[in-house]
Amino acid sequence: MRYQRETAMPSIQSFRLIAAILVAAFIAVWSAGPARAVSLIRDPDIEHALARMAAPILAAAGLGGTVKILVVNDASLNAFVVDPQHIFINTGMLMRMDTPEMLQSVIAHEAAHIANGHITRRMANMDSARTAAGLGLALALAAAAAGAGEAALGVALGTQSSAQRQFLAHTRSEEASADQSGVRYMALAGIDPQGAIDVHKVFEGQELLTTSRQDPYMRSHPLTRDRLRAMEGFVAAYSGNAKPQPELDYWYERARGKTSAFMRPTSYTFSRIDDSTHEDIREMRLAVAYHRQQDSAKAVAHIDRALALRPDDAYYYELKGQILLESRQFQSAVKAYGRAHELSPNDPLIMGGYGRSLLTVKRPADALKQLEAARSRDFRDIRVLRDLGSAYAQTGQNGMASVVTAERYALQGRLKDAEIHARRAVGALPQGSAAWRRADDILAAVKRSDTSRRN
Question: What pLDDT is attached to residue 170?
Fold first, then answer.
């Protein structure tokens, strides 16, 4: 499991999407006091589990494989969308839901906002900088592009009420539409829509609290008694076609168990280990707990027991690779990551870990192959870009090292640093080549940012 600060969406050229992620990040922290970084948790096991739970819902919504579920490192209860390709779920929401059906209802509701065009319309509305919110976003974007994250937050705070109303705070009509569509998607997928009512009951009564005491999900998705009654009607109309989903019960327990083992104190994991009904999940959680206590021998022993129960599980091999790598057992880590890659050859997070381990044993050419493949599948991964820059430098390809370093800084909103490396790249690479154009795109983005600040 890795933590990754997230301040921008994948394309450095799409400034409207950058503004959108800034708004989402700002709203997520408005109620949390001092400014703090918003980060994603990138873990192939957890993302695989969430993808399996989301797949039938996204198919019913007509979204297929176009939407990715990402986990935000935040203990508060929240889930949101800021573009048509991603649904963000807080760790707090993931661990608070008691059944996979409850989490699936949250995914279905957010998928409905995408499928019903709510986010697309908002992105179009952001073209105008004439409103107070639009002006605040433009200024915040300029500050973030200059690397002044806290200044950007301050600017956004100055326009928080209008930004919150106009972007993430859904209207009553949108919420009613998403409620009904989400329940319909669950029914079409054969999932018990009772989970949607159960989620509403988690937040029941929060409308009576002051805004500062409400969960973020409550503020962006107002949940009222009227909505609960309407939801009960939707569920009654669509009930009757649900099928058991024992496989997803397993994957939800695994995702929650791994998240909890990494996020909560190790004492909690040891005291609640019997909460896991599957033996391999218990062993995995113990492996994580001992790894966090820097007891690598016990950590490896427990993950090996999990692997004895599931010998072809790529994600347990990936966890073993992480434990070994972070314990400085580099050759063994390469072997574990290599096996994970054999079992799941197209997972970019596993490729990234495999490439990272190869760098530790002085095999930069082999690492480069894995890291480039990872970047081509998930070019928002900051850690992969950092390792890729190192691999290019170690193989004497300094121009390419400058390109990926510039891209890494650009994705972090550090455009001045990105500009330095992009200029090095355009001076070292053949003019007009694909890599040269990537560097030139970054310089163009920096120029647009400078123009925005001057205006």
Answer: 54
